[in-house]
Each structure stands twice: as structure tokens, then as C-alpha cells.
Amino acid sequence: MKHGIWATLDLDPTTDRSAIRKAYAARLKAMDVDADPAGFAALRAARDAALAGVAEVVTGPALEADLPPVPSVESEPETDPELAAFHEAINAHFHALEALLFPDHDAPPTPEELEAIEHHGLALLADPRLEQVDFAASAERWFSEMLAATIPRCDPLLEPAAATFGWIDRRDDYALPAEALAIVERIGAIRFTKLVGDPAHRLHRAWVELNRGDERRAPLWNSRKPRRELLSLIRDRYPMVESWLEPQRVADVDGPDTAIIGVPVWLIMFLIVVGLRIFFSLGGQPDVLPDTPPRITYVAEPNQIARELTGKGVVQLADIHPELATEIRATVTEMNATSSEGKMRSILNDLARRRISSGLAHAPDALLRDIARFDLDGKRAFAASDPIRCNDFRFPTGEALLTTALRARQTELIHRTVLKSDSVPVTGSGRFEISGAFIDDILRRSGVPEGRMVEALSGKGEHDDICRVEIALLETALEGGKEGMAVLRAMQPKVGTATPNPSN
Amino acid sequence: MIVGIDLGTTNSACAIWRDDAPVMVPNALGDYLTPSAVSIGDDNAVLVGQAARDRMATHPDRTVTSFKRRIGTRETVKLAKRDFDSEALSALVLASLKRDAEAFTGESVTEAVVTVPAYFNDRQRKATRRAGELAGLPIRRLINEPTAAALAFGIADRADHEPFLVFDLGGGTFDVSIVEMFDGVIEVRASAGDNRLGGDDFNDCLIALARATLDPQGLLAKLPPDRATALLAQAAERCRRALSEQDGADFSVTIGDTALTVPVTASAFEEAAGGLLQRIREPVLRSLRDSNIAAATLSEVVLVGGATRMPIVRRAVTRMFGRFPATTVHPDHAVAMGAAVQAGLLARDAGLEEIRLTDVCPFTLGVDTSEPDGRGGFRTGLFSPIIERNSAVPISRVSTFSTLSNQQTRVQFGVYQGEAREVSGNVKLGEITVPVPPRRAGEVTVECRFSYDTSGLLEIDVSVPETGMTRNLVIVDDEDAPDPAELAKRRAALAALKVHPRDDAVNAALLARARRAYESFLGDTRAAIGHMLGQFENALATQDDRIIAEARTAFGAALDQIEGERFL
Q: Which of A133, A287, A400 sits opposite B321 (nearest CB)?
């Protein structure tokens, strides 16, 4: 009794290509494809699967490799001494380029190295064999993957490679490979920074200001308008460039909203505090994982997801946290079953959120303290200039609020947190108590009057107040010994469904 | 009887399936190729073909060529105070071919299979169908030109062929298809192309090259622009053909009594055409990528289309593939013959019982979507593919989407065809809206199914699983779906045009050629042509067929002597 694809083909399982094609032809002639499009699709799929099986027998299953194979230069028979010399020269350029792009140290490239990179790369791009379409196709794959992996060392080669392979002309094609697209975007971003880096450019002053690394606020006479214009241009056309700017200076430009008016005052000994805006709340939720690629053909892969969430490969993870490894694999299958990148990202972000919430519910004291310090540092950075961003900053926080250093810290915290998670659902922290002494401390540190502080603790009132109070709360909790620790823990999600009742 | 027609940018051709083989249909001049040219004669009768093409140089305000480039648009051209759009012009050519087929077979022609570039979009295909309607020649099926060439190639020997590549460079369009044949199944694996790349572009290239030194006195600028363009185009065509045989040729234009000539070398032409040759690579690379086939494994590269006669194109193809292209099919006839094969298949001819053709859809089809932009807003106008290009047809695919805003009450999909990441770069085919229950953003999912069949009909089904609400849309060209009454009116108007009698076509063609030649030459040669022209016109006046035929033969031979044989 034939099964599956062999039943569809009406053929006994075989690795004979000719027999498979004959069976397909016979089935095709016996059907009316317009009347039965689903049947046709099934027949095609069966044939392709059968042929794929043949290919595997012949060549073996596909191997996982980190980098694509080197375009085969060695395999040409060297009959002609000129040809042999040519191949040797190309090989030499290739190896030299590889050594320069993958050094065993982390130092940035010297000007001499950059020149050498350019020289060897251009020699490879001038290879006359690139006229042949097969050679060009595999060279294009090799170059795009290698360049994407070695940014920024390979910067001198981005434009020449893009010109050779026509990536810039194809930038609008949705099927352009992710690496080539990333390279085209970077080229655009670099060209743009050169343009505005020129003192003669009309937005040059704004550019300099947005890049200033020191703490001073912008001088009053430096109007926000050109910076706004520049920022809006960057966000619209060269989003990559925004991540190269100083977040503080960007925050200066974006500016706070109008303040919200406070409400009437009252005071009691034990305050019941509503859980502050934990990320379960409604509304736009930022992407948690910074490297999720936007809007390009993306195939999910378990190792990559595992590394993003835990810093470990999926095989290693299966040893220490098998249940998480299994969930990651299942998620990858689910992601790859959809054809919409937006949907894929949302599935991934859901997984991240669930696991982080769960991890927070089970986090040991040390981890909670580190997270609190992280929140504190992030909030302090925005406290003076942008209270709204200060209030938005909470682990795990979105890309727009992170500097490089903070991003690295958050990544590490995410890894530690996820490793503590399990699959039991958790709920928001609900309400919790803080003692009078604690409140006094917060009052003192924040410098905010009592009434407004009470509002702020409930997440209401002026942004500025909320920001200062939250900072004071974190500081007090970190220095507050056992009670402080209890408050930190009370702010996290809880396992189970019951909302904790305020006790007396 | 169903005929097969290759409706080309520069030339068209007709073929029928007879006695187990495709047979080319000659036109009134005895040629298999009929130039895609329309001219209004001095007697206000419509001329189609060779005569019209020659009149392009002498009566550019009453003549038009290369109108296939404008099919699918609403552009019109004025010929002798009448407006013609590309559909009407194509209809005139189709009608002329229909008459040729009926004269050749003695049977009435009821339907046609017409070829279109694989890379024609939905709008262009619908317009081609309308041209058939207008000509009174219903188009039973449109097939892609490279597929037709593959059919002609495969039918010849009925053997199995491992995947081969059809490289079709015509007057105005470029198409690449990768086709495989086995056990009577002809399977297209991938198609790609460029609708704006053809022999005409190489002509423009030559014009630009020659123009630099051609006309130091600026005589061309003094002519009416369409006259200047026509003269240059004609000169370019001649020069380009000559360069296919020799290493150097003259680019010459005669204006009144002045001859302007510039010598052009083959190598200079090759360098000037570098950009065009570069553009040829991308569709080749794309079709190989999409079908996941390496060029080295192709069994052959088949050249189709007049422009592939150019040595520079042949050299480029040889370099691209590392081998010489196959020349077993006639580059000018293959497409028409393939159309005849398809016609035979449709007529259920017993000789073709064992053949099946499966094709792909060369364009991606999808909808527009939006995404949150990370700052509380949305990025709109993103293209979300549902049927990816080069999927085997018929095909049905479904994608799931969700609502983006809270309390959203309906979801609207724009349907697009194309490859751009943003829908603004693609062709919009239609729109469909479905109501959804108001909920939080992302809580309601909507399924969108695209079904595309072998005739190119696209059907869209949208459903909301939660409510069971469904909507359906069959794509009819949004913009100018003419109602049947209007179409009938246009058809009647076209039929009412006086067409030059078919049996006089040879004379009309010779007259047109002579007048063009007269203007192209100077001095004694011009005088001689003028004299012979006068004699021929006298012969015509006698209305004696024998005298006319003799005079025609003699005059034709004399012109061949002077300017070389006429070419198509």
C-alpha cells in the first residue's frame, strides 16, 4: 500500500529520477489542472519531494556551515601557465582579504589595513570570470555574506561590491537577500553622514549637535528646528543612522509632552500602591530583542533564537533547560509556518515577553538588584532632559532608549532572566504595600511634595514627578535591606492567577 | 480554425497547426514576417505591414511603429487627424494577419492564440485581449513568448530536454524562461524579463553614438521632430543590421539634398551598448535564482528574436554562460510556431494528445500591509507577497493578517502585482474590504487567499475566521473595464475604416519602398529611382495585371540592386 507522496504519484518508492518524472507526467495528463488546482499543487509537491529525496541520497543532507564555502578556484585544471599564474594571484588576494577581515584581535583597522582591504577586494571584484552567471551568482553570495559579517571593517568595499552586483538598483526588490539589503542601507547611511558631515551642508550644525557626547544641554541659541528636521529626515530615510547618534541629544529634540495636572492630596500611614506600569499594560509595545531584522525575508533558526534569549546555543540549552529549548524549537516552527515577517516578529516577541515575565517571577535577589540598578541608570540618564523617556525606561526596554553600553547590560540581564523562567503563566504584580518609613525616604530623596508623590507612586501626575519618584523608589529599595528587597520583589510578576490582597 | 499569432514590437507573424507540424502563414507579399506598422495612405486607406513601415520615413505624421510599447496605457497617437490607441493599432495588425490566414488556408479563422512577453503585467495582457476583440478575432488564450519558443523547440524533436534557457530579445521586450521537457510535459520553471529592453533600444544607442558627429550644421533640428526621429530610427536600423555582418558600417541620413554620414565600428557600438548588455544580465540571474538552477546544468541556451542576431548580443550570451548558444530554432519564427502548437493543443488535435504545458506566474502578487514603527506610529504601504513569482500555476495561497488598531471595524486590502518592497512601486490590481468585529489591536485575524489560474485570472477570497464573514473579488481591470457596448462601438468604428485592398498590397509596398528610397539617395541614383517610379505608376494606371506584375518585378529588382534587398 503506497503512502503519502508515493500514493499521489502512484509509484513505488524509488530514487530513479526518470521514473518519478514519468509518474508525474502520467498523473498530470490524467487530470484537468484548472478544475483541480489543489490536486495539481499536491502532485507538484509530491514530485518535488520525491526528487529532493533522490538528491539527498546522492549528495548527503545539507551541512550547516558558519560561512559560505569559498568560490572554487582550486578546482580548475591548470593547463595554461598564464591561467595558473592568474589563479594564484586571485588566491593570494583572497587569502589576504580573509586575513584582514577576520583578524584574531578586536582593535579597529589601521588606515594601512583599510587600504589593503580595499586593494585586495577590488582585485577580486575585477575577476573576469564574474561575467559567467554561475560564478557571479556564487561570488555575489560569498561577498554579501562576508561583507555583512565584517561590518565595519569591510566598509571600503561596500560601494564597489554593491556596484558590481547591482544591489543598489535592486534595493526595492523584496527578494533581495537580507545581507545585500543591510549593505545597501549602510551605504546610504554612510553617504548621508558624509553629506551632513561637510561643514558647508545646511544641516551640518544640527548634525554636530546631535552627535555631541558630553553632558551639557544644547545652547539656547541652537534652535531645535534644524535638529528636528534632520532627525525626521534620518528616521524617514536612513533609520540606521539614528542608532549612531547620542540618545541624550535625540531625547533633547524629541522633548516632553505637556504635563498632566495633579489631583487632590491625602495621606495615610500604609499606602496601597498599584503596580506601576509593568509591561503587561496595553498599548504599543516595543520590540524587546534588538537584532530582530526588520522587513526582510527572515528564516527563524533555533540556535539564533536561543542565543538571543539566553546567550547559549540550543543544544547547550537543552542540557540545562530542556523545557525552554523545546519551546524555542516549537516557536521556530510556528514562525517559519507564517509568510508574514510582521507575524513572525510578533510570535518571537510574545515568547520573549512570556519568558522574561516568568523569569522575573522566579528571579533571585541578586538578579533583581542588578535589574533595579539597570533601571536606575537608564532613568537617571533621562531624568534631567526627558521625563517621559525616563518613565518609559523599564526592563526590558525598547531599542530607542538604549545606548550601546546599556544595550549590552540589558542583553545580559535578559539572558539571566530567561534562564530562570518556566512555562507556568504569570500575572501582573497587582497592588503591594510599602511602610511609612520607606515613604519618608522616598519623599526625602525625590524632593517631591507629599500629595504629588502619592499620585506619582500610582503612575499619575506630572511626568517629571513620576520620574523623580521612581528613581527615589529604586534608590531606596536598593539601599533598604530586607524591606527594600521585598519591595523590589513585590514589583515583579507573580506566578498564579490570584491578585494578592492587601493585608494589614 | 484557431491560429497562432506572434504580435511583436517590430514584426508580427502568424502560423497554423497542420499535419502534425506548425506551418508559417505568408502575408500578401509572400513574407512570413509582417512589420508591426500602421500607416494612413494618401487615399486615407489603412496600410499595415511593409508598406506602412516604409512610409514611416516619408510620412511620419501618418505612420506609427512600435506601438506595442504603449499597450496597457491610454496613450494615443494622431494619424491623419484621427486618434489611435495601442489597442486599436494592434487590432489592425491582428485583422491583417487574420485575412492572410484565411487567404492561405481557404478556411475561416474563428479564434487566435496570441503571444505576449512573459513579463507583461495584468494591464498589458488585458489590453492585448481587447485588441483581439476589436479586431473581431477573439483571443482564446494568451501564452508567454518564451514558452511559445520552448514549445516550438520541443515539438521539433519530441525528445526529453533537461532544463534549458530561452533567451528572447525582440524589438521592444526581453524575456528569459527556463523550461524543462520530459515525457510530453513541457514545464516552465521560471520566467523573468524587462519590458523596456529590445532592438529599439540598441537603435537608440547607435543614434546617440552617431549623433555626436553626424550633423554639424544642425539640419536635423530644422525638421519637424517626428520626421527627424523617423529618419534617425531608419538609419539606425540599417546600420545595426550592417554591423551584424561587418566590422564597420555607415550611419547615413539624407535630408533633402544633403547626405549626412558617419562611420561606426562594431567595437564602438559594443562599448556604447555596454549599459544595455549589462541590463540583460539581471533577468537571466533572476530566473536562475528563482528556479534554483545553475547555469552550468542547463542543457542549452536557445536564442529567439531578431535582436539576437547581433554579434554583440551573441558574444554577451556566450560569455554569460561559458558556452555557445543553440541556433536550431528560427529566431524570427519560433514564437509564432509555438503559438500554433498551443492552438493545435486547444483544438484537441490528435497529434498533440500527449503534450501538457505547465507555466509559472512571472510576477509576485500580494497585498499592502502596515507595521508599527517602534515609535507609536505605523509604517504603511509595505508589500506583503502572497503568491511569489515563478510559482507553478494554477496556484492558491493563503496568508493571515491581524488588525492594527484598537476597535478597528474593517480591514482593507489593496491587491498588487510586482516585486517592490513598497506597494508604491507595484501595479495595483484592485481592492477588497471586509468588516471585522471591533476589538483590541491584533486580536482579530483575517485570512486572505489568492487563487491564480492558467488563464491569468486572479481571484481573492478574504475571510474572518471569528465571524465567518467572507468577501470575494475577481480581478477585472480597475481602470478601464470598458462595458461591452463601448467595446462594440469601438470595434464598429475600427471595422468602418477603409483598409487597403489585400490584393493590392504588393503594389502599395513597392510604392512606399520606392518613395522612401527616393528620399534616401541623391544625385543620379535619386533621379533614376524617380524615373522608374514614374514608369511604375504608369503601369499601375493601365490596370492590366500582367503589365503591372512585370513592371513590379523589374522595379523591385532594380531597387534591390541599388539599396540591397529589402529586409524585415
A: A133
Q: Which B positions 329-358 lie with beta carbon below 8 A of chain A? A: 354, 356, 358
What number does CATH give the domain B361-453?
Answer: 2.60.34.10
Answer whether B401 touches A (CB < 8 Å): yes
Out of B31, B68, B100, B126, pick the active-site residue: B68
Question: pLDDT confidence of A440, banded at 50, 70, 90?
Answer: confident
Which is it for strands B410-417 and B63-65: parallel, antiparallel or unpaired? unpaired
Contacts of A22 in chain B (CB under 8 A): 182-183
Whether the bond between B394 and the residue before it is cis, its omega within 30 degrees of 0, is yes
CB spacing of B285 vs A399 below 8 angstroms: no
Tell me whether residue B447 is one of the annotated catalytic residues: no
Residue labelled with grid coordinates 544644547: A218
Tell me which residue in B296, B354, B454 faces A33 most closely, judged by beta carbons: B454
The CA distance from A389 to the nearest CA of chain B, in Å, is 12
Write down the domain spans for chain A: 4-59, 84-189, 198-254, 359-495
Q: Which three cell numbers stand for residue B308?
A: 539576437
Residues of chain A positioned with their CB less than 8 A from the CB of B386: 339
| Cell numbers linked to A340 | 508574514
Determine the Cα–Cα distance for residues B63 and A112; give it in Å rounded to an integer.
64
**What single-letter amino acid sits at A186?**
R
Distances (CA, A) of B336 to A500, B28, B148, B187, B307: 81, 17, 7, 19, 16
Q: What mean pLDDT is predicted for residues B330-336? A: 92
Determine the pLDDT at residue B154: 80
Alpha helices (H) in A338-364, listed in sequence order: 341-361
pLDDT at residue number B202: 94
| Section B328-352 average pLDDT | 85
* B369 with A282: Cβ contact below 8 A: no
Q: How many CA atoms lie within 13 A of B496 on its CB side?
A: 6
Mean pLDDT over each residue of chain B, to the nearest integer: 89
| pLDDT tens by residue, A235-285 | 888 888 888 888 888 887 776 532 222 222 232 222 333 323 332 333 334
Question: Are residues B152 and B338 in contact, defined by beta-carbon separation less than 8 angstroms?
Answer: yes
Nearest to A348 by CA among A317, A309, A399: A309
Query: Is residue B28 over pLDDT 70?
Result: yes
Give catalytic status of residue B68 as yes or no.
yes
State the pLDDT at residue A306.
Answer: 84
Q: How many CA atoms lie within 13 A of A8 on its CB side?
A: 19
Query: Looking at residue A268, what is its pLDDT?
Result: 27
Instruction: Kindly give, in sequence order, each residue whose CB lies less than 8 Å from that of residue A307, ignoring residues fewer than 6 positions away.
Output: A313
Asked whether the predicted pLDDT for residue A311 surpasses 90, the reply is: no
Find the CB nearest A28 among B294, B356, B382. Answer: B356
User: Which listed residue (B85, B87, B145, B359) is catalytic?
Assistant: B145
Query: pLDDT per residue over B171-191, tens digit each?
Result: 889 999 999 998 889 899 999
Chain A interface residues (partner B, CB cutoff 8 A): 18, 21-22, 24-26, 28-29, 33-34, 37-38, 40-41, 44, 131-134, 136-137, 166, 169-170, 172-175, 235, 282, 284, 286-287, 295, 338-340, 342-343, 346, 398-400
- Check residue B119 and give left, alpha or beta (phi > 0: left; psi -120 to 50: alpha): alpha
Contacting residues for B372 by C-beta, under 8 A, at least 6 apart: A284, B378, B379, B404
Q: What pLDDT was estimated at residue A384?
A: 76
Higher-pLDDT residue of B449 and A342 is B449
CA A16 to chain centre: 45
Find residues 260-299 of chain B whose CB sits inside 8 Å of chain A: 281-282, 284-285, 288-289, 294-296
Residues from chain A that touch B184, judged by Cβ atoms under 8 A, are 25, 29
